[in-house]
Specification:
This protein has 383 residues and is of the alpha+beta class. The protein is built from 14 helices and 17 strands. The strands form three sheets. Strands 1, 2, 3, 4, 5, 6, 8, 12 and 13 form a nine-stranded mixed sheet that branches. A four-stranded antiparallel sheet has the order 7-9-10-11, sandwiched between helices. A four-stranded mixed sheet has the order 16-15-14-17. A hairpin with a 2-residue loop joins strand 9 and strand 10.
């Protein structure tokens, strides 16, 4: 007899069943794996089953995909994002097409509800079938005490008033200040203040405060390397780097291209730097994503004046838009004009957002000068 299969979002009452499914798939047992690893998403009151698309077979959950909405503020523009996580099919119910159906369900839902960008982690080709690909840029700088000694000397007396400590989840004064620092930046992934400590503790990371004379001047998040750092005044970065290395001896720093004041210090200080892809992304509205992130790039790079009309046959539908740059001001507008360049979805992700793109090198010169743009996701905001 054929199984009765249907797909839908879960409910609050299905929390235990949903957590059991995804924990078993990823850890082999129902041991609180996701609850401990990602408290920002999987506490009962956050209703993770409602943030999932689930396959039911004869009324039983057999597969599920977490879909977690977010909002990103970039130079005054708002981008709607969707993180995809815990792609899970029960071991007894694989090879039935559930993952494929659920991934397409999730992407169709994003398109229908006006989302712009989606990120996930996983095997590249596996998710390439659903238009995701590696994209974005991060710099991984490695700094040692020897680097500090040769550039700044061994005397740390002038930064003795900088104190670095683990952030206490009950330190509301520091959390409020961290929220202010985040909101002041040109790129700001909107975070719920009530969940801020849990968000920064994602994947077992450890948030720290940076204080000078008792006043909080910044914070960082460390998980092996420092994968997020922000200061109220970027001019303090040199002193902060010295204080961190004096404390830790050596450290890697993952920095976004648009954190230019930090890059200016590290490019001449670090022992080495690796250029890495940031994440796997798909774009459901190329026009809005390019508009926001090219505007962000214009805050730290001189862009050539010019105009280019692009037609993208994207997963979210065909998009025809004109990109215009004049005196480093960016506009990206929908148009009916004849395109100068026509791209598939995969070609567009590669040319506009990837670190390595032979196609971009062969495109009109203005394309290779404007792109790639710095799409970005802090590890704290990953799902």
């Amino acid at each position: 007899m054929d199984k009765n299969v249907y797909y839908s979002r879960g409910t609050y009452e299905q929390y235990d069943e949903y957590m059991e499914l995804i924990n078993i798939v990823f850890s082999g047992k129902n041991d609180g794996y996701f609850e401990n690893l990602l408290p920002k998403l999987y506490k009962p009151e956050l209703e993770p089953a409602k943030n999932a698309v689930i396959a039911f077979e004869d009324g039983k959950m057999v597969a599920g995909i977490g879909t977690f909405p977010c909002e990103i503020k970039i130079c005054g523009k708002t981008i709607k994002g969707m993180g995809i996580g815990n792609v899970a099919v029960h071991p007894d119910h694989r090879s039935k097409g559930y993952m494929k159906d659920l991934m397409n369900f999730a992407i169709d839902d994003m398109v229908a509800n006006g989302y712009d960008i989606s990120a996930l982690g996983g095997q590249r080709q596996r998710y390439g079938y659903f238009t995701y690909d590696i994209a974005g840029t991060k710099y991984d700088f490695y700094v040692t005490r020897t680097n500090i000694r040769h550039v700044y000397g061994n005397n740390f007396d002038d930064i003795a008033n900088i104190k670095i400590d683990p952030l206490d989840r009950n330190d509301n004064e520091s959390l409020d200040k961290i929220a202010e620092i985040l909101a002041s930046k040109p790129y700001y992934h909107v975070r719920d203040r009530e969940r801020l400590f849990d968000i920064m503790s994602t994947w077992g990371a450890h948030p720290h405060t940076i204080k000078r004379d008792g006043e909080l001047i910044g914070y960082f998040v460390i998980n092996g390397s420092i994968n997020e750092i922000n200061l109220a005044n970027d001019a303090d970065f040199t002193d902060v780097i010295r204080a961190i290395i004096n404390r830790n001896g050596e450290c890697s720093f993952k920095i976004a291209p648009f954190q230019t004041e930090y890059v200016k210090v590290l490019e001449f200080l670090a022992e080495g730097v690796n250029l890495q892809s940031d994440n796997m992304y798909t774009i459901t509205c190329f026009r809005r994503v390019i508009d926001a992130f090219l505007t962000l790039k214009a805050t730290y790079a001189n862009l050539m004046d010019g105009k280019m009309t692009v037609l993208v046959h994207g997963r979210g539908g065909d998009e025809n838009f004109t990109i215009t740059v004049c005196n480093n001001n960016v506009t990206v507008e929908a148009t009916d004009a004849q395109p100068d360049i026509e791209l598939t979805h995969k070609e567009a992700v590669n040319i506009f957002f990837a670190n390595v793109s032979t196609a971009r090198n062969r495109a009109p010169a203005i394309i290779s000068q404007w792109f790639p743009v710095p799409i970005w996701l802090y590890n704290s905001d990953d799902v």
